[in-house]
Recover the amino acids of this structure.
């Protein structure tokens, strides 16, 4: 009896225990598994593009997802380093974004060995600029020949594979001394010394160091390229050995160096961001640098307004007028007569600007605005002082290079191989290199 009663109690307990165990097993199988969280790295989105034919810079930037407001910011950051007025088809752009579509890095390149980069600095909340360069070397090359019947210097140089821009430079320099239309004759001799910048054995930049032309009617003429110490110096140009400038012009540059921050024509204003006509060019200039009159004339404006800041205008003898805006100081007043290259003020940041620069404008003889860079200008008609001494040293170096190239053509002495020269830090000039061989 007791045993029977105990079974009645134990059996339900066993069944209940089994059911509870099964229930726990099933719930464990279907319970969500706790998976350790993995750190997800920021994914960077890279967009690349090139300037296409008929495109402006803003259109090219828009093609890589950079809208106008950010584009204006980037352009303002790069104006002092990049001459966007020289924008050309094929210039390369690259933008790097994060997953939130924030721009992290932008790069712009107009050749294969230099890249301008702006990177966002989180700690300063500003954009940092840097220039990335690849290793290159310079190598001289002499080109010479004689005019054939029915040919011209331009045709001969193009046939030798020189780029059109290099040919134009050579011809324009010699035109200052040679009247090709009247005096060029079959059998005239010419020489051109080039200095070619190489990257991966390809020419990426060409300098015309020397030109020579000799003929019975034309006479004998030589030119030498003078390179000033300051980058973009307006004094870097072609001269005779005694320092005479080989550019026919009565106008002088308003600054000692030429770097165009913003060109002539329609643009997006760097302050307002609105599209507007820019009746002049903005030239990079250090605050306080001297501003020179481009030609002799009479001061017709010397005043201040909220947009142009301190401004000066000079009426020249041919009735054209030059304009100089955003000056920090004005050194002339209305009615003053000024001579060519006279200091008329200092570079500043007065008026509506983003920073110190010179706005240079020009009206032609009929009072119409024109691109001032279409006027041919020179730094000086003749070098003097320390610059003349430097020119004479560079002339000696160029003549030494020509002599060594001639020797190398007659012997197995290969002096023209300059692959070991990495830049001017190793040798002050080419002659120093040859002296060590």
């Amino acid at each position: 009896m007791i045993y029977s009663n105990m079974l009645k109690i134990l059996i339900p307990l066993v069944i209940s225990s089994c059911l509870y165990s099964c229930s726990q097993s099933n719930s464990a199988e279907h319970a969500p598994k706790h998976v350790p969280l993995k750190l997800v790295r920021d994914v960077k989105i890279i967009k690349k593009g090139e300037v296409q034919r008929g495109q402006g810079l803003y259109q090219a930037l828009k093609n890589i997802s950079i809208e106008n407001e950010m584009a204006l910011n980037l352009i303002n950051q790069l104006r002092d380093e990049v001459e966007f007025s020289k924008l050309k088809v094929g210039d390369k752009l690259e933008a790097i974004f994060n997953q939130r579509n924030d721009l992290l890095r932008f790069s712009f390149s107009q050749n294969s060995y230099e890249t301008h980069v702006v990177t966002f600095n989180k700690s300063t909340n500003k954009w940092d600029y840097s220039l990335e360069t690849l290793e290159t070397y310079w190598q001289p090359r002499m080109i010479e020949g004689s005019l054939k019947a029915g040919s011209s210097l331009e045709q001969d140089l193009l046939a030798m594979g020189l780029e059109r821009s290099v040919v134009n430079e050579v011809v324009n320099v010699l035109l200052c001394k040679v009247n090709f239309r009247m005096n060029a004759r079959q059998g005239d001799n010419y020489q051109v010394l080039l200095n070619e910048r190489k990257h991966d054995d390809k020419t990426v930049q060409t300098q015309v160091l020397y030109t020579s032309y000799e003929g019975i009617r034309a006479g004998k003429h030589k030119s030498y390229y003078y390179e000033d110490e300051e980058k973009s110096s307006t004094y870097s140009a072609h001269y005779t050995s005694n320092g005479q400038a080989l550019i026919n012009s009565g106008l002088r540059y308003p600054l000692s160096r030429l770097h165009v921050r913003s060109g002539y024509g329609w643009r997006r204003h760097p302050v307002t961001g609105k599209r507007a006509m820019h009746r002049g060019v903005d030239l990079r200039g250090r605050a306080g640098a001297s501003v020179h009159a481009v030609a002799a004339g009479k001061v017709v404006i010397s005043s201040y307004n909220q947009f142009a800041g301190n401004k000066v205008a000079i009426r020249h003898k041919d009735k054209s007028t030059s304009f100089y805006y955003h000056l920090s100081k004005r050194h002339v007043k209305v009615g003053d007569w000024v001579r060519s290259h006279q200091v008329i003020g200092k570079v500043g940041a007065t008026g509506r600007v983003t920073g110190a620069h010179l706005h240079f404008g020009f009206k032609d003889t009929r009072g119409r605005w024109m691109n001032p860079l279409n006027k041919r200008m020179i730094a000086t008609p003749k070098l003097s002082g320390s610059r003349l001494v430097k020119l004479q040293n560079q002339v000696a170096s160029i003549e030494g290079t020509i002599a060594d190239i001639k020797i190398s053509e007659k012997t197995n002495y290969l002096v023209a191989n300059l692959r070991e020269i990495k830049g001017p830090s190793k040798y002050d000039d080419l002659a120093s290199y040859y002296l060590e061989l």
